[in-house]
Amino acid sequence: MGGAQGLIRWVRTHAQAMKPIRIVLSDHQDARSAKDHRGSWRPWRLCGCILWLTHMLRPLVAFLILLPSIARPLEYRPLQLRQDSPFTIRVSVDLVVLHATVRNRKGIPVSGLVQKDFQVYENGVVQSILFFSHEDIPVTVGMVVDNSGSMKPKRTEVILAALAFARSSNPEDQMFVVNFNENVSLGLPSHMPFTDKNSDLQDALATIRANGKTALYDAIAAALQHLEKGNRDKKVLIVVSDGGDNASSQYNLAQIMAMAEKSNAIIYTVDIFEEGDLDRNPGALRRLAKATGGEAFKPDSLKDIASICEQIARDIRTQYTLVYAPTNGLQDGSYRPIGVKAEAPGRGRLSVRTRTGYYAPMRPKLLSPTGATTP
Fold first, then answer.
1. Which of 68, 132, 189, 339 counts the highest number of beta carbons within 10 A?
2. How many CB atoms lie within 10 A of CB 253?
């Protein structure tokens, strides 16, 4: 079983056993007015309506699981059948989706592992892996590129590295660019939120001149927000900067860390700071990468940036996907640390890189029959 189709088959097979799945009906109109699937009107009892809706919604539940693919439990999502529908339906499926990179002692990526080779822990408690796959899936990826004044002599190498990444990526990836100095802007035209063409990416990287200061945190925030507009299950940011933040007006490091930890993004960073830069803060980039399951790179020279970007592309395309339902079902908004281990005969010592944790959702307020909210 692998990939999206495998997960759909798994969910359909186990739909009755999955929990918690809640369907709440707000009966502010007579349930007997519900229309059946052939278009004729007939009186239904409320319990019959609930059973029918539960049966019909199983494929929808499978689709909702696939759509986010996020490393945290899915939150309650209200779904309206129609604007004039007499019922409000809420579906909750608690799953955690992890994307993991496995390497051997030499740092070489390890392929060919199977589900039984992995162990997942949440708060130190072993979790049962419900779904596993190892295949190349398209992603939504944003290039966050520093264009402050100090980047002027480095721009050619950075643009070449970004294009090398694009050539090494899945052809179905959705890509976008966030350019920043003391201002933040999207590189692609307003009518084009994403692209899979190298020519568009090159134009997006060349739309701004290198000058001014560095609003790094504002740029990352803008990229995280734009990333959510993509329709690929897996989402990635690549941040390239040569200086610490000295110009952000909207966000600070603590706020960006919180946004990154609550997002579904994997963040890779490329640190090309100057040694004498008083604003340099490589620790911030390392923290962002570690918290989200990405990796922080410090090239020895500008010529190494292209090979690093190609390595990031390979890393994205060869990750394992692990899905589990947390044994802790409390929806209390708490942070849940995650650990993943891998062991396989003849493979030696293996290291696994993935997200370090996630925030559990807060229990939502449900609608009562009168339309009022209840805790």
1. 132
2. 18
49 and 152 together in one domain: no
Single-letter amino acid code for the residue at 297: F
Judge if 82 and 158 occupy the same domain. no
Total domains in the fold of the chain:
2
Q: Is residue 113 part of a domain?
A: no
pLDDT at 28: 40
pLDDT band at 274 (very low <50, low <70, confident <90, very high): confident
Model confidence pTM above 0.85:
no
CATH number for the domain that contains residue 243: 3.40.50.410
Q: Distance (Å, rounded) from C-alpha 72 to C-alpha 325?
A: 10
CB 368 within 8 A of CB 90: no
* 1, 152, 171 from 137: Cα distances, Å: 15, 35, 10
Q: What's the mean pLDDT when you consider all of the chain?
A: 80
Q: Please name the residue that has the structure tokens 């990333």.
A: 227
Q: Do 340 and 321 form a contact (C-beta atoms < 8 A)?
A: no
Q: Mean pLDDT lowest for which of 63-67, 209-213, 293-297, 362-366?
A: 63-67
Instruction: Say yes or no: 306 and 205 in one domain.
Output: yes
- H/E run at residue 180: strand 174-180
Decide which of 279, 302, 317 is a domain's last residue: 317
Peptide bond into 86 cis (omega under 30): no
pLDDT value of residue 186: 96
User: With 80 as the cut, is the pLDDT of residue 42 above it?
Assistant: no
Q: Residue 274 domain-assigned? A: yes
